[in-house]
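From the shared-data thread, chain only:
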Amino acid sequence: MRDDERPLVARLRAGDQEAYREIVDAYRDRIITVVARVAGPGADAEDLAQDAFLKAFTALDRFDGRSALFTWIYRIAVNTARDWVDYRRRRPVVPLEGTFGGPSEPVDQGAPPGELAERDELRAAVRDAVERLEKRIAPLG
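Structure, as tokens:
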């Protein structure tokens, strides 16, 4: 840790809200940039950066001062972005277009007829479930 960071870290550990603001203001743009580079397009870099700052502030007692404060927060931000990328790989986003009366997706001409029928049945079941759910929720709104 740099000597000029010691008082700031002490204020952070004491719960000084202004110290939190100073850190976020000083590092926000650089952290957002690194998160956007790691997570890539489609990531909400501002949300991921906010998560990284929150993780850093809640783990401040584990900051041992062997590195600069920015370096420590930077590592947390990179790890947060990597975790997000890994999560997105395991749970890809599936667009709903074509499922609920929107533009339909192209028919896979190479798919076996049984598979096409299963897809149609699944779409119909999901559509029916959503309609039932909408009917149950509508009176509440």
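The chain has a mean pLDDT of 83.
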